[in-house]
């Protein structure tokens, strides 16, 4: 076997004494790089490395059991949000089925802090009693999946200003109402972290993947803050 040249020897030594220890140090500290989810909505840069991100405004609605459901009920929770109405014959049945499957896939203690919020854009018809019957057809867990109603103006404003989604009455739209097909992922601080087409299985799969990424992001941040 031909002896290694001087350059090759230096490269081997560099690998063992510089590169390899760096790899072990990285593995030992657990400081792996990983993708973080984006933040949606307006933001304000206060200083280098200090940014204030948009947060969903506070709200006060009523759930399918006729109970008040407010900002206090989502503080510290992760939310998956959509807009619908029970008389919808176009995209809502598909969205409801996708949300139902997502609820089943997240039926694990690791996701206990995840809430599903479905806001009706037809509150004059969709009373708590109507919503409760609709939720029953979807086998919704009443503790985790809330169907919300309230004053029409409040719901429409919350959709537009809170999630940047269409949610309004429209005589030109099918069934008389216009609303987005999007599912919205909101973190514990109320920041919007993702939008997904709730009629497409592949995008709902992406939502699930991003949710897991968000939970990992939270763990890494908590570990860093604990030092």
CATH homolog superfamily: Glutaredoxin
The ordered string of helix (H) and strand (E) elements is: HEEEEEHEHEHEEEEH
Q: How many extended strands?
A: 11
Category by helix and strand content: alpha+beta
CATH architecture: 3-Layer(aba) Sandwich
Write down the overall mean pLDDT: 86
Q: What is the count of distinct domains?
A: 1
The CATH topology is Glutaredoxin
List segments where confidence is low: pLDDT < 50 over at least 5 consecutive residues: 8-32
Cα separation of the termini: 51 Å
Rounded radius of gyration (Å):
23 Å
How would you describe this protein?
This protein is of the alpha+beta class and 227 residues long. The chain has a single domain, classed as 3-Layer(aba) Sandwich (Glutaredoxin). Helix content is 37%, strand content 22%. The chain is built from five helices and eleven strands; from the N terminus they run αβββββαβαβαββββα. It is globular. The chain starts with 5 loop residues before the first helix and ends with a helix.
């Amino acid at each position: 076997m031909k002896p290694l040249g001087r350059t090759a020897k230096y490269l081997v030594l560099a690998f063992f004494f510089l590169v390899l220890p760096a790899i072990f140090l990285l593995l030992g500290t657990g400081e792996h790089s990983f993708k973080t989810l984006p933040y949606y909505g307006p933001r304000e840069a206060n200083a280098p490395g200090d940014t204030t991100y948009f947060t969903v405004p506070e709200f006060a609605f009523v759930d399918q059991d006729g109970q008040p459901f407010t900002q206090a009920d989502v503080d510290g929770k992760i939310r998956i949000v959509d807009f619908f109405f029970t008389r919808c014959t176009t995209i809502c049945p598909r969205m409801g089925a996708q949300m139902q499957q997502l609820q089943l896939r997240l039926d694990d203690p690791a996701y206990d802090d995840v809430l599903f919020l479905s806001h009706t854009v037809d509150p004059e018809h969709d009373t708590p009693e109507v919503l409760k019957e609709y939720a029953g057809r979807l086998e919704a867990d009443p503790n985790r999946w809330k169907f919300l109603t309230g004053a029409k103006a409040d719901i429409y404003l919350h959709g537009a200003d809170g999630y940047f989604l269409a949610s309004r009455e429209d005589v030109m739209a099918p069934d008389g109402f216009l609303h987005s097909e999007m599912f919205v992922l909101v973190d514990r601080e109320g920041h919007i972290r993702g939008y997904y087409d709730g009629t497409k299985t592949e995008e709902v799969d992406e939502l699930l993947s991003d949710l897991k990424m968000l939970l990992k992001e939270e763990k890494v941040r908590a570990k860093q803050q604990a030092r």
